[in-house]
Amino acid sequence: MSAQHTPVGVAMNPRSHLRLLYEGNPMGFIVEQAGGIASDGNCRMLEIEPAEVHQKLPVFVGSRDDMNELLSYSNAIPGYGIR
Questions:
Q1: What is the spatial distance between Cα 8 and Cα 74, in angstroms, rounded to a whole number?
Q2: pLDDT tens, 4-29?
Q3: Fewer CB near the terminus (10 Å): N or C of the chain?
Q4: 59, 38 in Cβ contact below 8 A?
């Protein structure tokens, strides 16, 4: 099975319990290096400036196509700013 036909999907954790500096950013970096998108529902994970060392946030990662589809739903998860 080639990489073009491998099902990828989206991994989501809409609850804010992953730490940005220790879990969110490293995961986001790897996903983006692999050609995917990592977001907190509002912006790219790697563009977020931490407000505190143990800042927690929701995490949405996946292939570029799947994440663009998810981010196109303005009301996918009420209360989370997915745009």
A1: 22
A2: 444 556 777 667 778 899 999 999 99
A3: N
A4: yes
Count Cβ atoms below 10 Å from residue 27 Cβ, excluding itself. Answer: 16
Q: What is the DSSP letter of 11?
A: E
6 dihedral zone (left: phi>0; alpha: psi -120 to 50; beta): beta
Task: Write down how long the chain is.
Answer: 83
User: What is the Cα–Cα distance from 54 to 30, expressed in whole angstroms?
Assistant: 20
Bridge partners for 11 per DSSP: 61
Q: Does domain 10-48+57-72 have CATH number 3.40.190.80?
A: yes
**Hey, where are the domains in the chain?**
10-48+57-72
**Residue type at 59 in one-letter notation:** V
- Please write the tens of the pLDDT for every residue from 22-49: 999 999 999 999 999 999 888 899 999 9
